[in-house]
Design goal:
3 domains; single chain
């Protein structure tokens, strides 16, 4: 085909495209007068799902925040407090600025971040917008105050029982912002708010260069319920009942630090639990299963001065010390060097070098670098490098043992082959025997309990080290499917029963047996798993949880998740050890800023996302004959 023919065809093609484009523009412009003008509150509606979903509308308002993928728009309101006056307009590379008054033509959509399978709620958005700037430099709408001088969120109920079951991704549900926290925050979606006299109940958690978060309470927690819900270190304790469906502390407010929304010169702050933040202002968004206040204005921080704890419990001639510590995916790789050094320093300086340490989340010798295809399961290097680091920090030279799991059969990070392990000080205790409880069917697909039998002062002490099935895969508390799904609940109940049966068998043979059951049990002290199943019923109780006997019992938490201080790590004992037992949760990690990748905080090193536990047991040497009978 010669050049002339190609040129003619190309010109025809361009003219057709041009005519088509012009026709589309003409149709769009000519139809614009027919696009209904509505208030933002009418788009949002008093519901989780917009009554105008799927329609093209026009609205106007003031730009209150500009993100990388769109901007927040708010108008003067339609008079309905239950219907939000703010909305997110989804567009990349927008030229709008904060303070612009704009008119937006766009489609009303409900967008679920990450897709429906995440369980997230949807966000009402205007998509594929056409934007007309009306003016610039306007005053921003007055922020709604969340706190005592404004609107208070519900403090006990996320969603009312009489509304369940419901999936708010697809169903309107009953909408009551005065009663249900999930509706209260929805009624503010996209709006400018001020959290009054806020206090941090979690540290800053940095996920990447573009995202960091913390959780707060308004009015320094003055309106938090029940009256004793705040602990002495500044956090808010979770106490949500036998099935964990009760009070989830909905007065918690997540604050989000996103660089494109932060004011100029204000960087993500490294918050510690208890830091006072004054009144903080931003726009309400939703991500990763939580409503959040995206910070748009600077604020001043009054540090809490919180420090890491040092346990007062120490072993001596008649006192045995036992610890439990989830060491957060520890491997022998160079990438974990800083973590390993910090763990060693904590074990020596903060825990007092306990005689026996039950460890969870020990990875194999090649960690995750070998991937699922790696056949490495041995963890000798992981444990030896930790032992060496402890000795270098001034501690004893521990001995160790573990039992390798079947390759890729124990859960956790792919290729890491999680397992439980023990360290013990041979100058203080002797290892008599150990075994992995591989024959308990309830632990299939997760970490098998590891049992160590130790001798101290002539007494035999049996320690059962556990890491029960993870909660990973649960749906959000502020999610669409309600009630929210608690992953692994059936499995953990079965595992608690299997452990109870195992302990019953030992005690039936020897009522004087000294038994400790410890580890990351991945559920809370008040759930039926740990208050009824594992210890046994009142008539047949064989174990008691030492969490209730913590040195400072109002500080009883070993994990902070979404701002809730909660106990996931536990230590149960038989009656033979209970009377003179002392117990401490040593707060060295959870309350302080966490940036695993050092994306924003260069000097942040994380030892673990859990707190270690330490207990002291008095076992006097009463003579060989009596001790032999006890064994």
């Amino acid at each position: 085909m010669d050049f002339f023919i190609v040129s003619r065809l190309l010109n025809i093609y361009i003219k057709v495209l041009s005519a088509t484009f012009s026709a589309l523009i003409y149709i769009y412009i000519s139809d614009r007068s027919n696009i209904p003008a509505v208030a933002i509150g009418d788009i949002q509606g008093a519901a989780h799902l917009s009554p105008l979903t799927g329609l093209v509308v026009q609205t106007k308002g003031i730009v209150t925040g500009v993100a990388f993928n769109g901007f927040y728009l708010q108008d003067e309101g339609n008079g309905d407090e239950a219907a939000s006056d703010g909305i997110f307009v989804s567009i990349c590379n927008s030229e709008v600025r904060v303070g612009d008054a704009v008119r937006v033509f766009g489609g009303v959509s409900e967008v679920i971040p990450g897709g429906a399978d995440t369980g997230n709620l949807s966000i009402t958005q205007l998509t594929s917008p056409d934007i007309v700037r009306i003016s610039s430099g306007n005053d921003l709408p007055e922020a709604v105050v969340i706190g005592g001088s404004g609107r208070m969120p519900p403090t006990e109920v996320v969603i009312s029982d009489d509304e369940l079951p419901v999936n708010l991704q697809t169903e309107a549900g009953n909408f009551d912002p005065n009663q249900d926290a999930i509706d209260f925050y929805e009624s503010l979606e996209g709006m400018r708010v001020t959290v009054e006299d806020a206090v941090a109940v979690s540290p800053t958690r940095v996920f990447n260069l573009f995202s960091a978060e913390a959780f707060t309470l308004p009015n320094q927690g003055a309106f938090a319920t029940p009256d004793d819900v705040l602990n002495a270190r500044g956090g808010i304790n979770r106490a949500s009942g036998l099935d964990n469906t009760g009070d989830q502390n909905p007065e918690r407010l997540k604050i989000q630090f996103t660089p494109t929304l932060l004011p100029n010169g204000f960087n993500t702050p490294a918050l510690t639990v208890g830091d006072r933040l004054g009144s903080i202002t931003g726009v309400v968004g939703y991500s990763f299963g939580n409503f959040e206040v995206n910070i748009t204005e600077p604020f001043e921080i009054a540090p809490s001065g919180l420090e890491q704890e040092v346990t007062e419990l120490a072993g001596d001639e008649d006192d045995l010390t036992v610890a439990s510590y989830n060491v957060f995916n520890l491997s022998p790789l160079a990438a974990d060097n800083d973590q390993r050094i910090l763990l060693a320093e904590q074990i020596v300086d903060n825990l007092g070098a306990p005689d026996i340490i039950g460890l969870q989340e020990i990875q194999d010798n090649d960690g995750t670098t070998g991937g699922v295809g790696s056949t490495v399961t041995d963890a000798t290097e992981t444990l030896q490098t930790l032992v060496d680091a402890i000795a270098a920090a001034g501690g004893p030279t521990y001995h160790f043992f573990d039992v390798a799991p079947v390759d890729d059969a124990s859960g956790g990070v792919p290729g890491g082959n999680f397992r439980n392990a023990f360290l013990y000080n041979p100058e203080r205790v002797s290892l008599e025997s150990f075994e992995s409880l591989d024959d308990l069917d309830a632990f299939e697909g997760t970490r098998n309990p590891l049992v160590g039998n130790f001798s101290f002062n002539g007494h035999l002490v049996t320690v059962v080290n556990n890491h029960l099935t993870s909660r990973f895969g649960s749906t959000p508390i502020y999610g669409g499917p309600q009630p929210f799904v608690q992953a692994g609940e059936t499995e953990r109940e079965a595992q608690a029963q299997a452990l109870n049966d195992y302990i019953d068998g030992i005690v039936d043979d020897n009522p004087n047996a000294n038994i400790i059951v410890l580890g990351d049990l991945n559920t809370f002290e008040f759930t039926n798993d740990l208050s009824e199943i594992l210890p046994g019923t009142a008539e047949e109780q064989v174990l008691t949880n030492l969490v209730g006997r913590a040195i400072d019992d109002d500080d009883a938490y070993s994990f902070i998740f979404d701002g809730n201080s909660q106990v996931l790590d536990h230590m149960f004992v038989t009656n033979t050890l209970l009377e003179e037992a002392e117990f401490d949760i040593v707060h060295v990690n959870n309350d302080f800023p966490r940036d695993d990748g050092r994306f924003q905080f260069e000097d942040t090193v994380v030892a673990s996302d859990h707190e270690p536990l330490v207990a002291k047991f008095t076992l006097e040497d009463d003579g060989d004959e009596e001790n032999e009978e006890a064994e």
